[in-house]
Amino acid sequence: MSLLEVHDLTVSYTRRGRWGRPHARPAVHGVSFAVEPGEVVAVVGESGSGKTTTAQAVIGLLPPNGRLDGGRILLGGTDIAGWSQRRLQAVRGAQIGLVPQDPANSLNPVKPVGVQIGEALRIHRRGDRRTITRRVVELLERVGLPDPEVRARQYPHELSGGMRQRVLIAIAVALAPRLIIADEPTSALDVTVQKRILDLIDDLRAESGTAVLLVTHDLGVAADRSDRMVVMKDGRIEERGATRAVLGAPQAAYTARLLRDAPALRAPRFLSTEVTEAVEAVEAVEVPEAAGAARAAAATGATGPTGPTGTGAVCEPPEPAVVVHDLVKEYRAGGRPFRAVDGVSFEVPRGTTHALVGESGSGKTTTARMVMRLAEPTSGSVAIGGAETAGLRGARLRALRRDVQLVYQNPYGSLDPRQSIADIVEEPLRNFGLGDRPARRERVRELLDRVALPAAVLGRRARELSGGQRQRVAIARALAPGPRVVVLDEAVSALDVSVQAQILDLLGELQRDLGLTYLFISHDLAVVRQISHTVSVMSKGRIVETGTTRQLFENPGHAYTRALLAAVPGTAHRPAGQDGTAHRLPAREGAARRLAGQEAGR
């Protein structure tokens, strides 16, 4: 008997129509799958595919306007589909644990985390106050938090994102449930923290035999961590099967497209330009890491979507569009100075993409803000197009603002919800006094056409567009004043893989057509490999390594770079042969081997 069996699940949402009349909109259509004891089943698909709704229906946590219209949910052979919320309380925590997506919104901000972990134990009457306090500390220690007695007394805002996610895992496993539903448990985390969290879930599962229903849009994570995969689209299952079989020979066209678009699962390809060939032809130079400098290792020429130059000669790189020299940013914390950026230097040749990568807190976004003069450096210099930006005021500063534009991470929060799309894209033209109203409106239409949006969106509001469409609007707005440099701060991290692939292709096309220079800020090395020509790796405010993208991915010289690359999900599953598959350990076996290694080391 399977631990969980879902048969013909149908779910709808009730919404108000144009005249205020409620109507039901189907979200999940006849979904069926099973989860065996101790295995990981990944439910994958794009936003709106119904994967989270399916998981919420299993645990009885649909939103108020959600309704379970039909189907059976068998937990250990018992149908819980028609149970009341009161009956389901006995199931939640004790038999099914939940790790939600967003630790910032899933924890109560006014209660210490130890109290919140203890609530699950108190609700299910698992001991007196002293026993629960002791168990909370044991759980925090088990999920890898240092000083668990101290952490138990802290509030969520005092913990990092990775620590908060570990607290949610501690809550989920507190009662040793038979099934854990992990709904995008690492989507907001850096790759190294993501790996630690997923390893933790694997190890806990291997110890207790708990099964995991993993809901994710990250095909790399699903490839690494699941035994079986369920692919959903528009509320229906497109394909299901063993992960190895789905990765190696997808049967559905939609699955094949998802796998093709997933950056982590693509065969490595590196962009090649005059600058990369010139840098790669130079003999390697080693500089002490303490100075925050970088190395450029020798490597062979590269090919990629833009193709080689084909001259066979070593070319001088084009003049730099951005020059950053010995940049420092200090803040005061508790009366003592804290260096968020410490001696950062790099150059971005005109018409190329330079990526700044690193974990949260590494200083990459602060560096980008100083490049744009949105933050003043403590020391050091930034030059755009050969002109120093320090001390610019008035008309000269406005000219800089026009030359350097920004695309933010979140397409949901960076567009004014009160404005139409036409007004959003036109706003920079009005601000810089470019053209009269008819000319500006024509320019807006040209920009929307450039980013492949139909004229029909002109009168709509941002809420009426998809995430990918919103990000296209944000790109069109950035292009409106005709910038030479565009800073992209995690500009694709919030998007599904297929939409992400479309935006990356669009950025490449715009760069080739308009000669744009990009400064690309990201923690996703799989995306960086696809879009950048050169890379600087940042850690604790310093650049520890720099070079062409090919050099850093094929011959990383710094331990921190190697750790980042090793943590990229899906690395072991990139196409390795004609069938496009790679050898992999089943999730259960991989976790068991890791645990055995940990035991041997104790």
Query: How helix-rich are the residues, as a percent range?
Result: 25-40%
Report strand %.
Answer: 15-25%
Q: How can the largest sheet be summarized?
A: 6 strands, mixed
Question: From the alpha-carbon coordinates, what is the Rg to the nearest angstrom?
Answer: 26 Å
Structural class given helices, strands, pairing? Answer: alpha/beta
Low-confidence spans: pLDDT under 50, at least 5 residues? Answer: 282-314, 575-585
The overall pLDDT, averaged over residues, is 84
Number of H/I helices: 22
Instruction: Let me know the number of strands.
Output: 20
Give the overall form: globular
Terminal-residue CA separation:
37 Å
**Order of strands across the widest beta sheet?**
6-7-8-3-9-10
InterPro entries: AAA+_ATPase, ABC_transp_ATP-bind, ABC_transporter-like_ATP-bd, ABC_transporter-like_CS, Oligopep_ABC_C, P-loop_NTPase
Keywords: ATP-binding, Nucleotide-binding, Transport
Domain ABC transporter: 4-259, 322-565
GO molecular function, one term: ATP binding
